[in-house]
Amino acid sequence: MTERATKTRKPTPETESRQLRRARRRAAQAGSSLGLLLLRVAVGGTVAAHGLQNALGVLHGPGIEKTSVQFDRLGIRPARPLAVASGIGMVGGGAALALGLATPVAGAAVAASMGVAAWQHHTKGFFELDGGYEFPLGLAASGAALILTGPGRLSADAVGKNRLNRGWMRAAGLLGAAAATAVLIMRQEASLEGEALARQLDASEAPAQEG
Q: Which of 21, 127, 168, 177 lies most in the core, judged by the most C-beta atoms within 10 Å?
C-alpha cells in the first residue's frame, strides 16, 4: 500500500459542520420526545385518575351513581349513559394518551371530556380558587395540542410506525373533539332551558288553579 493510501483522511470544515448539525438535530429531537413523554404522562394520568374516580369510586371518588346524579342535575342527559361514556373516555383516553397510543383518538377523548368539564365552571370565572375553569381548560388544551404535535418518539405510536397516528387522523381527532364538545354543551343548555321554561309555566299556572 502506498503512503498516501495509509494516511487518515482529515474531515473538512464542511463535513464537521454537517456532523455538528446532525448531532444538534438528534439532541433536539431527543429533548422534544422526552418533553412530550412527560406531558403525555402528566395529562393522561391525571385525566385517567379522574375517570376512575367518577366511574368506579376509587381514589376517594364519587362513583358512577353519584356522578350520574350530578350529570342529571347539570342537565347532561341521559345522565347515566353519558356518565358511563365519560368515565370510559377519561380512563381509556387518558391511559392511551400517557402511552402515546392512537394519539389522535386519545387526545380527542381527553380534549372533549375536559372541554365539557370546563364549561361547567364557566360562570365562575377563570381561576381555580374561585371554582373556575382553569384546570379542566388546561387539560383540554393539552389534549388538543398533543393531537397536533404527535406523541414523540418515546411512544407506542412510534413503535407501531404511526399506523394509528396519521395526518388525516389528527385532523379528524380535532374536528371530532370540537364537534362532540359543542353538541354536548348545546344539549345541556337546551335541557336546562327546557327545565326553566317548565318551572315558569308551573309558576304561572299555580295562581290560576288556586283562584
A: 177
58 backbone φψ class: left, alpha, beta (φ>0; ψ -120 to 50): beta
Please say whether the beta carbons of 54 and 66 come within 8 A. Answer: no
Q: How high is the pLDDT of residue 51?
A: 97
Handedness of CA 156, 158, 160, 162 (dihedral sign): positive
Query: What is residue 100's three-state secondary structure?
Result: coil
pTM, whole model, 2 decimals? 0.86
CA distances from 11 to 22, 80, 83, 187 (A): 15, 69, 64, 67
Phi and psi torsions of 13, nearest 5° = -55, -35
One-letter amino acid for residue 96 of the chain: A
Residues 6+ positions from 208 with CB-CB distance below 8 Å: none
- Sequence-distant (≥ 6) Cβ neighbours of residue 45 within 8 angstroms: 94, 98
